[in-house]
Structure formats: C-alpha cells, structure tokens
Amino acid sequence: MNILLIGSGGREHALAWKLAQSPRCTTLWASPGNPGIADVIAARGGQGGCVALALTDHGAIAAFCAEHDIGLVVVGPEAPLVDGLADSLRAAGIAVFGPGKAAAQLEGSKGFTKDLCTRAGIPTAGYVRAKSAAEAHAALAQFSLPVVIKADGLAAGKGVVIPQTAEEAAATVDDMFGGAFGGAGAEVVIEEFLEGEEVSLFAITDGSAIVAFGSAQDHKRVGEGDTGPNTGGMGAYSPAPVLTAELEARAMAEIIAPTVTAMAEAGMPYSGVLFAGLMLTADGPKLIEYNCRFGDPECQVLMMRLESDLVDLLDACARGELAGAAAPTLSTESAMTVVVAAKGYPATPVSGGAIANVAVAEAAGAKVFHAGTANAADGTLVAKGGRVLNVTATGASLQAARDRAYAALSEISYADGFWRGDIGWRELARQSDLS
Ligand code: AMP
Ligand code: GLY
C-alpha cells in the first residue's frame, strides 16, 4: 500500500520510521516531511519522498493521492484535522487515519469537550463557558483561586492561564477577549483548578471499537525543575507508572469509552487517536483536555515501544475495522525522549545552527528523530525551528532508557542548542525512593 504522511515534526519522523518498517508499506510519501523523514524514505530505495503540498488545499492533496495511488493518509498534526482535511479526503474515497472536522472539535473547542463531559457524565473540572468579557467577569465570582482560564480554540498550546489572584484573573479575561489569542479567545472556558499529577493516555478508536495505546508523561516547561514558560514539550517517557493498570482501566471506562459513545450518538463518530490529558486527583482520573492526534514528543516514545505493525493498526482504524484487527502490542521496556531545542525557544529560537554527529549518537544506542531541521545548500544539517531533535532511547528501566538517551545526546554537536537534563525526574525520584 502507498501511504501519504502529513506533517513535518519529530512526531511525524517517528511515525514515518515505524510505517516504513511495515511489509505492507510499498511507497511512503510525506508532506512536507523533514530531512529525517527523507532519510527514512531514501533508505528504502525506490519511489516516494517528501513533497511540498499546500495542506489547506484539500483538492491538491486528493489529486496527489489519486495520481500516486495512495491507499492511506496518516495526518500527524491537529491543524489540518480541525480544518477538515480528513473529511475532504474521505469524500474523495481515500482512507484517512485521523478524525473529521466535527470530531476534531474535541481538541478544537474546549467548550465543546466540556459540554460533552457534562452530557456523558465524564469526570472533569467544574466549568463555565463565557462568550463575552462581561459573562466571564461575572463567572469568576463562582471560582476560588487559583482558577483556570482557557481560550476556547486552538492556541498552539498557549491558551491556558492559571491566575493566582483576582486581579490577574480579571486581566486575563480582558486579554483574551481583547484578542491576545486571536479568534481562539473569542470564547473562554473558566475552570476549577484540579490538584494532582498529570498523565497522558492514548487510545485508538474507529468510532466504535477502542484499544488502549499506552501512557506517557511529558515536561511542558522549558526549564529544569519544571520552571519557566510553557513549550510544546521538552521531553517525555512511556510508560508512565503513575497510571497504574487499575487507574488506566478506570480512565478507559469512565472517560475514553463514554466519549467515543457520546461522539457516535451526536452523529460525529471519532476515528483516530484520542490523546487524553488526565489529572490523577484524590477522586480518581479527571479529564483535563483531549487532543485529536498523537502527542509530540509523546509519539516518539510510543513508537519506540510499539512492537506490532503500525500500518495494520492505522489502516484498520481508518477503515472502521478495528474490532477485527489484532490489538497493538507495546514493549514492557521504558522509552525516553529528550528534546534538543534551539537557544531562545520558546520565544525566538536561533535558526540555522549547524548540527553534527547525529550518526554517532545513533551508534551510541539512541534513535534521533528530526523535529526542526533542514539541509543547508552545502548539504550540512542545520536547525530550523524551536524544537530541533528528539534523542530517544529504550531500556529495561526508565533509568536505563534515560542513561542511554543522555549518553547519546552528549555525542551530538550543536552549539546553538539546549536541553533539559532532568527529563523523567519525578518518576526517577519515585523509583529511587522505592529501591
Ligand atoms: P491544556 O492546554 O488544557 O492541556 O492545559 C495546559 C495545562 O494547564 C495542562 O497541562 C495543565 O498543566 C494545566 N491545566 C489545565 N486545566 C487545568 C485544571 N482544570 N486544573 C489544573 N491544571 C490545569
Ligand atoms: N506534548 C504535548 C502535545 O503534543 O500536546
């Protein structure tokens, strides 16, 4: 089968790496792809490669699929899904892994998801939706501090503010309705602050059948000790032992399954990966948010652990045949990924810094996924973007995976880069307390 992968980050490099391992993958195309993905495709020989299609031009993508006999499109990032790319391709008879526009509202509209939780009895933080600054100011009186204020729409992971004082809360409301997050803040959700530890749970569903696809924890803050501004994620590991088998079963039964049922009942069946951000509270797991795609960098650690065939899984999901497919198997080993970012990230990353010795790092036992790289005119690898590389390793324990990832990272030469040295600290500390 010929496959088209949409996206250009470390998540998509990890997906490409795993798709390419499948005997069912004949030719792999990626749009726009990146140099790491181009290497994966080149190593297979034959056709395929990275092509620059306009992702908002659904007709052009459908035409490319027809011309290259694409049997499956795998969409990595959320923006094309929220924009309805999967609907356009399905209408043209092309199988797609990823939800349509209506179902992608689970990520695209926080208010939509909160209302769904209310209807389906899904545990989540108490909330009020507000469509004007006046409504939001009035609603704030119902909440104690700290309070959580969220722009309703997609805001590149930056649309959540947790004010500690009433003044800050009022100013946040004014900022959001003043356009600080553009159209995403035309409506806001005000939420109760939940106490607990956060964990991510992944599930694959075709709208009726559901399979669990592992847990992970990431580090969103840029600085060590989880300090400084939020980022897309500076590192992750999987599995997350804090989500015990018992808590995972509860989250599947109380959160994921009722969501899939409620979406089907609402006439917008959800097909793709459901990425649940959970808070493990004293009352059990509660939903913080849904994403309609794999996490980045969580996908990188999941793909390192995936033992079964990714094409089989994504294709069965896309065709609505998940119930009859073999369940995916994840290794019991731990995987960790450390994000190497360009200095200045997440504000203004330094672009163009030279990167060397990626092959040496891989020889040291890691897999290095490209997140934001480019080939310069002279053929050298340079940085292009905030998050640049994801140095990823597995091990019999989280400590072993960590040691291998950092040892490999130390081989990489990239003067303009930085990374956190403490990925996994919370879990590693817990494990060393137990030993
Ligand atoms: P979100 O974009 O919804 O994942 O929110 C970003 C981050 O804000 C989450 O990863 C949490 O750390 C935090 N957060 C969001 N909602 C809540 C909540 N109700 N209580 C506590 N923290 C929250
Ligand atoms: N790493 C968090 C995300 O992909 O949303």
Would you give an account of this structure?
- There is one protein chain.
- By secondary structure, the chain is α+β, with helices and mostly antiparallel strands.
- Helices cover 33% and strands 27% of the residues.
- The protein has helices at 10-19, 35-43, 58-67, 78-82, 85-91, 105-108, 110-120, 133-140, 166-177, 245-265, 298-305, 310-318, 358-363, 398-409, 425-434; strands spanning 2-7, 28-32, 49-50, 70-75, 96-97, 127-130, 147-151, 160-161, 188-192, 197-205, 210-218, 221-223, 227-230, 235-238, 272-281, 284-291, 334-342, 354-355, 367-370, 373-375, 381-383, 387-395, 417-418.
- Strands 10, 11, 14, 15, 16, 17, 19, 22 and 23 form a nine-stranded antiparallel β-sheet that branches. It has a five-stranded parallel β-sheet with strand order 3-2-1-4-5, with helices on both faces. A four-stranded antiparallel β-sheet has the order 6-9-7-8, sandwiched between helices.
- A hairpin with a 5-residue loop joins strand 20 and strand 21.
- The protein is globular and about 60 Å long.
- The protein starts with a strand and ends with a helix.
- The model has no long low-confidence stretch (mean pLDDT 96).
- The site of adenosine monophosphate has 11 residues, from strand 7 and strand 16.
